[in-house]
Amino acid sequence: MIQKQFFVNGVERNIVVNGKDTLAKVLREQLGLTGTKVGCGQGQCGACNVILNGKLVRSCAIKIDKINDGDSITTIEGIGTPQKLHPLQKAFIKHGVTQCGFCVPGFIISAKVLLDNNPSPTREEVREWFHKNRNACRCTGYIPIVDAVMDAAKVLRGEMDESELDFKMPEDGRIWGTAYPRPTAVAKATGTLDYGADLGLKMPEGTLQLALVQATVSHANIKNIDISEAEKMPGVYKVVTHKDIKGKNRITGLITFPTNLGDGWDRPILCDEKVFQFGDAIAIVCADTYENACAAAEKVKVDLEVLPAYMSAPAAMAEDALEIHPGTPNVYYVQNLEKGEPTAPIFEKAPNVVEDDFYVQR
Ligand code: FES
Ligand code: FES
Question: In the CATH hierarchy, which fold is given to the domain comprising 1-202?
Fold first, then answer.
């Protein structure tokens, strides 16, 4: 253990830490600043961004022993509060960037460093910044994020009144079809919304900690799941598999329309017979500490018959493709296409024409 003295959001902190812990872990677990999220934990996604001495850094990738005494760290909690939002936070709310919201603190921190160094960025420079710093958002899409940064920059330059970022209730009071902020938007933009890992840190002492055993292949038949060694690992209370699920080990979503060829009950809660995608949950280890749960999760042995991985819709639609969900055709729903007028005359006038096959998500 080592003693460290540094500043977090302007407050001097004097703490004893394990030098091998990451800055993210110390911020979240010792200082309770759970606005700093950990997504990948491997320096890839930017969810854990903080500002260290004016520079953007990934707190999951910095060991606390690399923080020098007297260093200054800013987390999302130091940018603004629910009562006093920073223009970036207001703009992210206004532009609907707060979807699941998990990436938002990291994006706002990143944007803060950009605007501190370049108060008048072009849209391209904002895009380039997020690209260079590899900020990832899996649900909002990036256009509203750039819109939000451009608006916040205008407010900070004094070219736009901050009140323009506030939602104005229509006179008739109807919010349908408006940009009414979702109820959790402020909490997401300020890092005060608790996600699973945050709640896990706020449970009473003695609460079991969980680690998932996840598939590391994209498609396979499961021949056996052996938990015997994992059960004997230190601190393990239980290893939960599909056999422990009460009732039907299946979940369904919005895929039960009569036009679909499946019955909608093809997804297991915990995998039993097949792995359908990389990361599928196979078992849950419950232990006294997260570290013990993770160590035991490594000992769960999953015997697989690996099957061809279909990484695109066209691959899964190929005639010789295996049925991914046995009993349900891979083409389980057909969307009619309206093709409209032929575009050939437009092509003839175009200076350049590119033709190819393209596919998108569902
Ligand atoms: S959690 Fe640190 S970069 Fe993804
Ligand atoms: S809002 Fe969900 S990851 Fe960005």
Answer: DNA polymerase; domain 1 (1.10.150)
